Amino acid sequence: MSKTHPSHDAPQGKRLGLLAQFAGPEELVAAAEKATDAGYQRVEAFSPFPVLGIDEALKNPRTILPYVVLMLGLSGMCIALLMQCYMNGMEFPGAPWGLSGYDFLISGKPSFSIPAFIPVTFEVIILLSAFGAFFGMILLNGLPKLSNPLFRSERFAAATDDGFFLFVEASDPKFAEAETEAFLSSLGGSGIEGIDEPVTGHAVPGFLYLVGAAVATLALLPPMYLWATSGTTSTVPRISFFKDMENQPKVKPQTTFALFKDGRGMRVAVPGTVARGGLKDDAKLYFGYEPEDGFVGGPRRIEAMLASYSVQPVADGPDADGADSATPPAADQPKEENWVTEFPVKVTKELMERGQQRFNIHCAVCHGLDGGGMGLVTKRALELEQGTWTQPTSVHAESVVEQPVGKLFNTISNGVRKMPGYKEHIAVEDRWAIVLYLRAIQRSQLATADDLPKDKLIELSNLN
Amino acid sequence: MASLVNADITEIRQASAGLSGAAVPSMAGGLLLVGLAAGIGYATGDQSRFWHAYLLGVMYITTLGVGGLFFVIAHHLTGGRWGTTVRRLAEITAGTLTTSAVLFLPILALNFSGSDVLYPWIDRPMVEADPILASKQYYLEPTWFAIRTVVYFVAWIGMARILLSASVKQDDREPMKQARWMQTISGPMMILLALTMNFAAFDWMMSLEPHWFSTMFGVYFFAGSFLSFLAMLILLANYLQSKGVLNQSITTEHFHDLAKLMFAFIFFWGYIAFSQYMLIWYAAIPEETLWYDVRQQGPWIAWGLLLVFGHLLVPFLGTMSRWVRRTKPLIGFWAAWMMVMHWVDLVYIIQPQVRGASALPVPWLEAIATVGMLGIFIGAWMRGAAGKWLLPVQDPRLPIALSYHNH
């Protein structure tokens, strides 16, 4: 860049063209029309506002912008569809860098489903078309352009106010300095002046570009290193920006804490404490069996629990934290005769209906609505040949039918084989309701003629 | 182009009063065809199909009329300029709603006769026994249905008459005052039109499957309605110009604009139709999916695909080019295409509800009924146009519209 502002008198570069001013929009359109009619091809018009008819007068070719937008829109469609096909409709297990795709069943829809893909496709088409229109317009207009040689004409500043200009470029095949100047003035142009290429100062030395590129590249290294270390294993602690957030002075679960005598961060409840809802005093209701010594788990369980602590508690107490926290160990399984055989809750029609509803919500997906063991999940697992799947035992199997209600209740609460326990999900009364409903569907499958009311029996025998 | 001075006008701008008489053969022929369809329907014992075809025909011309009414109201409401040259054509089209109302009367009579061949909810014991329909029994009820239908038509005909008479008055005196008056009333009219169109769509077509509901159905009806009107207007302008009518006033620019609107509404229709489909498809609730389930059996699958391609994708690409929009025969072709597709759309909405029809037969009965209705519609249009200026000659915006240019 030269230090002094170049003026008209300064040494000039190559001639770029001739600029002529016209009185108003009509004159500008007429002049442009005549100039293009006379065979000039590289003519530009400048006006403070869009002048109607100037495009036709300049005989500019129509812009290719619509085609740019169309092409980008079509690309958007292809990109969006391919992206979704790959991400939703395919899966390559074991592919590196999280590129495996995710073929996941959503709402029972096929993993490759066009209707679900259309909204995203539509949005991507709009996005890319808008980008095409906006950036295409900017690029096709030759923007960004920090300076234009025309700005060097003082008169030209009026183009943003009340000036109407026509510029004939020197690169036009018909351009000839003297004739063109005479022609422009014959059109009514005033103040005709030649516009020259600015004389540039020293060019930026080439090696500076190299240096800039190298610095920019090197600047990327530290963040890339941080990013890389955050996802890999290392023998040294990883670099951390927010140390006080990552290491906060607080006691976390399952950690030591020197302030307490026993050194444990987590505290044991004071003996005799009963958690809310933890007083499970009716063993029949809460556990489904009659313990020999009055409460579930027995003293042995408490002893075992205490023995696992490094420090002896101050005093022995009854099972205070509620026996809800653990499945009775295998050794603690009650004897067969201890299972409750009568419902510890009042059997009513409402309870039966509640049981049916809860069963259909919690159990039927695997066990099937009839309890036969062919629920939707089971069917799907068998269809996919999932080797890890254990098909639920039919509730109509003799071994299940023979079980006392307490044992069924225990199975629902604590699970069996692959089946998880449901005591956290289903309230005690609801679990008993399900057992009641189980009894009903068992009976429905194993009914005999004697179970039918007399009139129905007569009706049936009449059918034969 | 500067506005025309009287000496330059070579086009015909006024419809002859004799057009009224010329309308008679068209109307008579139309009635004859509808009668023929009725005869065939009753002779073959397929009353349900005939009445659905009849409703289809009435809906076809009603959508044209309502689309025209929307065009006029929207034009006033937005202070539109370019559309002034075709405004009178739209006003006359909206005027045909009177004929649509008369043609709807047999359907009301059918409902009152207690026959459920068209609307299943006429069967009261069935409605009361069905838990879903029981909750709709006070809405889907012949008398209340008839009252609503009358309200819709009275509102539409009233708005069409008020706007047409103000516009005709404008041809003689006080053009500024009339223009302002029409602009003032167009706001409330738009609200009234939106509400009535919405519920009319629910009542007349959605209730053919009374279990089903779609809150988008009214918009769907509107999209098809305005689209078919635009197509009709392009065809009409093309035809009139071939007879030397308005061929100076309606320029390439106006065709271009109408074609742009048609292009936009082709996509709007697709957007709404797909939105309605996708939400129901995704939620998969039985009482919502049953409507589409019926339409995904047998030949209706192909009919639905015909809509996807013929009503959306093909014309969307076909009318995308500026060159096509500015070439009258080409845009005329696409307008005719869209009018056929609008019919295909209405067949898709109405005909699968025919009781006892498992598969789509060749829809010739439907075609006869619709062509008959179109004959009546054309007759009604000619009667409406007779003796009137086909251009709001004194409208203050007309000079701007005549010299209008697209960029």
From TrEMBL, chain A:
Say which domain of life the source belongs to: Bacteria
Q: Sorted alphabetically, which keywords does the UniProt record give? A: Heme, Iron, Membrane, Metal-binding, Transmembrane, Transmembrane helix
Q: Which part of the chain is the Cytochrome c domain?
A: 350-442
SUPFAM superfamilies recorded for this chain?
A: Cytochrome c (SSF46626)
Stored Gene3D superfamilies: Cytochrome c-like domain
Membrane spanning residue stretches: 64-83, 116-140, 207-228
Which ranges are annotated Low complexity under compositional bias? 323-332
The record, for InterPro entries, names: ActD (IPR021776), Cyt_c-like_dom (IPR009056), Cyt_c-like_dom_sf (IPR036909)
Provide the residue span(s) of the region labelled Disordered: 316-337
Q: Which residues form a coiled coil?
A: none
What Gene Ontology terms describe what this protein does at the molecular function level?
Answer: electron transfer activity; heme binding; metal ion binding
This chain belongs to the protein called Cytochrome c domain-containing protein
UniProt lineage: Bacteria, Pseudomonadati, Planctomycetota, Planctomycetia, Pirellulales
TrEMBL record, chain B:
Q: What is this protein called?
A: Quinol:cytochrome C oxidoreductase
Q: Which organism is it from?
A: Botrimarina hoheduenensis
Spell out where the chain crosses the membrane: 21-42, 54-77, 89-110, 145-164, 185-205, 217-240, 261-280, 300-318, 330-350, 362-382
Look up keyword 4Fe-4S and say if it applies.
Answer: no
Please give the PANTHER family that the UniProt record associates with this protein: PTHR43044, QUINOL:CYTOCHROME C OXIDOREDUCTASE QUINONE-BINDING SUBUNIT 2 (PTHR43044:SF1)
Keyword terms:
Membrane, Transmembrane, Transmembrane helix
